[in-house]
Write a structure and sequence with these properties.
single chain, alpha+beta, two-stranded antiparallel ribbon, 2 strands
C-alpha cells in the first residue's frame, strides 16, 4: 500500500529542489504565518537528517475543516 503516510521511492524523473538554509528559514516563516491564520492546530514533524532535513505538517480536525473550506484551497484530481 502506498500513500501519504507510507514511504516510497521518489521517481527519478521528477526533480527535487534543495533550498539553502536561508531559503528554508524563509519558507518556514511564511508557512507559519499562513497556517496561523486558520483555526485549529498544525504540528510540524521533523524527519530526515541535518544534511537532508525534511518536515511534514499534520493538522487536527478543526484545522483540516477550515483548510478544506478555504476559498483558495484547490484539490488536484
Amino acid at each position: 500500500m502506498r500513500g501519504a503516510l507510507t514511504p516510497f521511492a521518489w521517481p527519478a524523473t521528477i526533480p527535487v529542489l534543495h533550498p539553502s538554509p536561508e531559503q528554508r528559514a524563509e519558507i518556514a516563516k511564511r508557512t507559519a504565518h499562513a497556517l496561523g491564520k486558520l483555526p485549529g492546530r498544525v504540528y510540524v514533524v521533523n524527519h530526515g537528517s541535518r544534511r537532508q532535513p525534511r518536515e511534514s505538517h499534520v493538522g487536527d480536525a478543526e484545522f483540516l475543516d477550515a483548510w478544506l473550506r478555504h476559498p483558495r484551497f484547490r484539490m488536484i484530481k
